[in-house]
Amino acid sequence: LYASDRDKESMSRGWFVSAMPDLNQQNSFMANYITQNSLWWIETLGLAGIRQDTYPYPDKYFMAAWARRIMREYPEFSIVGEEWSYNPLLVGYWQQGAKNRDGYQSNLKSSMDFPLQRILMEALTEKEDWDSGLITLYEALANDFHYASPQDLLLFADNHDMDRVYTQLGEDPVLTKMAMAFVLLAPRIPQVYYGTEILMENSRKPDSHGLIRSDFSGGWESDKVNAFSGSGLTREQNDMQQFMRDLLHFRKGESAIHRGKTKHFAPEDGIYVLFRYERERKVVLILNKNEQPVELDLSRFREMALEGKEFRELVSGEEFVWDAKLKLDNKGVLILTNMKQE
To answer: CATH second-level architecture of 5-258?
Structure first.
């Protein structure tokens, strides 16, 4: 609204870095070449999707035409655009269906949810207070009213350009499990970076892309650790790998996560509770930051109509009946599902 012409010019026509020339998409021949080149690669390799880097930097009207042409040729194709901004207003601007003041329509179905990613890391590591900790995660997810289709945003805990999630969370495996559970159960398209399941880190040299993109352990004769077979993994690595295996297998077949509704409750006493549900099926995510045993008052969730229902915890397999209170013995995550009634 207030940007200068100089800044607009620098943004859309300036070089990203000195080693990467900026192609002139306003030239009709260049624009046609780029579009045809994309279509050729999609057809030749049978691609299912494109992660389009630095989405706001090219000419935005070309990008809208490019996305429209690809989706016209391949209606089931997936394009996710990288808008590395922690401002949800900017991320929302680039999503198809956004009601932008300038009338711009991007034809881009999915954008990367950097705002929620950063808040997730902060919420798990900050001290609990009225304006910090899990309340910020609750408020960040509440921003979904702004997005045209929040369920089509891509959420992640880390990627190839930022510190590994295990490093961001101070090499705390419990917090890492909590983060990944939220990523995989939230109303989003999840992205999991390779090696998260074995707690890969770059703590000795933060922001080092060489370490962030290190080889996965295993596959070479010289590797002392083989994450494919489990040989050489620590107890914590094995535990995290099994946690991710269980959670991903569960998510794969859970329609309440794929197509269900979402309801969450404001955090109280260091505990955040989120429900995904479809008809009678309920999935309950509980994030608990308390180091000491606490009791969760289940009467707060009466509107979910769960009284007397049998539930099973995903990882431990423990079963219980939804009653007045639920004892939480340790800091961590619980994933509860209601059991089918005979």
So the answer is: Alpha-Beta Barrel (3.20)
